[in-house]
Amino acid sequence: MSENRTLDLAARQAASLRSLADMIEANPELAENFSGYKNTIAITVHTDLFDRVGSLARFARACKAAGATVAKEIDDKWHNVVATFANSVEVTMLAYREEVCERVVVGTREVVEEVPDPEAMAAVPTVKRKRTEEIVRWECRPLLAQDSDETRDGAA
């Protein structure tokens, strides 16, 4: 997208959000309709398709500079950055963990499981067998520090 189109889009989005804010302020009885389970307005935004980590970092920095509280929410599927503005508006930038974090195998372990005995399937007895499975951790780089060894999963 060209710089002029980007600036125009940003101006239109900002004006639209100001209009929404004006409408809520003029109609306070509607405020509860905009509140989610945390009494906040929840907005979801998406990362740049070609620079997911960079998108998260730019979003975190911009929100922090604007006075928002910025945190990561990481689970088995997602690595999101959540910015909370004045405890009333929560903006979450979504990313799949596997797209922004590196999967690192840190060991293996033998796992014993019972499976049907292949030679006696008619009677279906079980036997114990060992298999090896990976032990992994996910390393997610800090978004607000360029080349820092800050806490990897706890710090934004």
Q: How is the topology of this model organized?
A:
Layout: H1 3-26, E1 41-46, H2 52-65, E2 69-74, E3 79-85, E4 89-94, H3 97-100, E5 102-116, E6 126-139
Parallel strand pairs: 1-4
Antiparallel strand pairs: 2-3, 3-4, 5-6
Shape assignment: elongated
Give the radius of gyration.
23 Å
Q: Assign the CATH topology of the largest domain.
A: Signal recognition particle alu RNA binding heterodimer, srp9/1
**Major sheet size, sense and barrel closure:** 4 strands, mixed
Number of helices: 3
Structural class: alpha+beta
Portion in strands: 25-35%
Adjacency order of strands in the biggest sheet: 1-4-3-2
Q: How many domain regions?
A: 3
- Record field, number of beta strands: 6
| Helicity range | 25-40%
Terminal residue distance: 28 Å
The unreliable regions are: 147-155
Q: Average pLDDT across residues?
A: 84
Second-tier CATH architecture of the largest domain:
2-Layer Sandwich
**Secondary-structure element order, as H and E?**
HEHEEEHEE
- Tell me the name of the CATH class of the largest domain: Alpha Beta
